[in-house]
Fold each of these.
Amino acid sequence: MKDGEFTDRAAIVTGGAKGIGLAVAKRILENGGKVALWDVDDEGLAARVSELGSPPGLVATTVDVSSEASVSVAHANTVGAIGPIDLLVNSAGIIGPTVPTVSYALPDWKKVIDIDLTGVFLCSKTIAPGMAERGFGRIVNIASIAGKEGTANAPAYSAAKAGVIAFTKAMSKEMLNTGVLINCIAPGPIETEMVANADPKHVEIMILKCPMARLGTAEEVAAMTCWLLSEECSFNSGACFDLSGGRAVY
Ligand code: NAD
């Protein structure tokens, strides 16, 4: 990826108020792009914009990615603020409760699926048509190794992330001749608030399972994401890339 890769590009990063989404947004900005941080956490958004010094080309939009109406309004406002969108990163997500399937409550199941899977569908279906009209677009969906191997006591999260991987493959095939390339990343445990809030014993087990014996960083996810958003990524679509410190997940 060349320096200034995203000059004249406009990006939407969902879940941009923290963690992986924020790291991706910073990297796009550093490389000349305009970025809309999309998040449900309005206080977090305001804090991030102020911490980043309100640079030109950065906007923040409060949105619930699981609501079609909210995504539609956010999209219209964002295009009004930074122009037509070239790049979309679907990073918004929640892990949900850590509960075995037999005790998992239906409202919790629905909430995780609505945000982690339906949110990716709604943002993609709303934003991709404009990309296709202009003949260029890149979409990166942040899945998880949980979607490939299944994580015990996180049935909804695992199912949602498996859905994101399959959705990426399906939609990418529909868009192949439009210049819109759609890929996803399956990270292992990454050092963000999502993992900081997990049971420390569980985090220890995650590290033991990693051949590199550590958590990944949001910056490492951002580096791979930004390559997939770049023009250098020209012969990949519908792929899922592991980012897991050598942990092989099939
Ligand atoms: P995080 O909790 O730090 O950030 C997630 C962001 O999504 C938050 O800012 C949150 O407010 C936002 N969000 C939640 N619900 C939303 C909604 N309905 N609408 C809009 N925004 C919403 O998490 P993270 O670690 O940065 O995770 C980012 C993505 O990466 C998630 O999809 C997660 O599943 C995935 N992932 C994370 C890890 C990890 O170990 N951290 C590993 C694999 C995959």
Amino acid sequence: MSEAAQTLEGWYALHDFRSMDWTAWRLAEESERKHALDELHAFLAQWGGVEQQKQGSTAVYSIVGQKADFVFMHLRETLEELNEIEVAFNKTTFASYTYPSYSYVSIVELSNYMGASGGDPMENPEVVARLKPELPKWRHICFYPMNKRRSGNDNWYMLDMEERRAMMRSHGMIGRKYAGKVKQIITGSVGFDNWEWGVTLFANDALQFKKLVYEMRFDEVSARFGDFGDFYVGNLLDGEKVDELLKL
Ligand code: 76R
């Protein structure tokens, strides 16, 4: 058996994609819409408070294209908290004007391919900051799930550690070229959801998503071993943008 990579886990993640029921929203009374919007703002404020207390982090983005209208990406200490957020939102008046389009459950993950620095990693503030990150409020988000292939000669899980480490190093070097332009959060989802990882990217210039993902396609670890799900791309929704999106 090949040696499994060691992983460190941080906050649990829920990517909660929703679509608007625009017909119902349009037919609603003005007062009902106002109540629904107030509820939504109360949630945004509550999630902001959790972030300030460093008990989690939430990012809200609109989604371009027909796959969804917006996404709430939540990071929290436990799966229970993620479930509570989801259920509390579902009970709101606002939620009755939305329907679920997609969701993804995973956990922030770091692996040891690039080598450990020694000592207890959970005592290292840099490691902890990566495992429990404040989600950047950059202009754009890109999310997609992925697997490492298991077929014939292209079976990632049959390769020995050294081979995988060398490929991951090359992967990391490409990624580093995008430092400051793209922030990536890798979340592991083996045992939690239908794919093995969620990839969440943030950028102020959306074009950098295309540049980065394209360049990686030529790198062996993506070229030979990457299988990808649907891509979701969108724009930051802050409080004012929420009102703009929902205004009729
Ligand atoms: O954690 C690190 O920074 C060390 C290097 C590193 C690891 C171990 C790293 C760097 N990644 C790692 C692991 Mn990554 N990453 C992806 C995708 O579209 C594609 O082709 C693949 C999707 C992108 C865009 C990306 C970006 N990475 C992983 C893993 C887990 C693998 C495993 O355990 O087998 C996956 C699935 C994955 C996928 N990666 C980086 C980036 C970027 C931008 C970096 C540089 C980060 C930095 O140095 O700041």
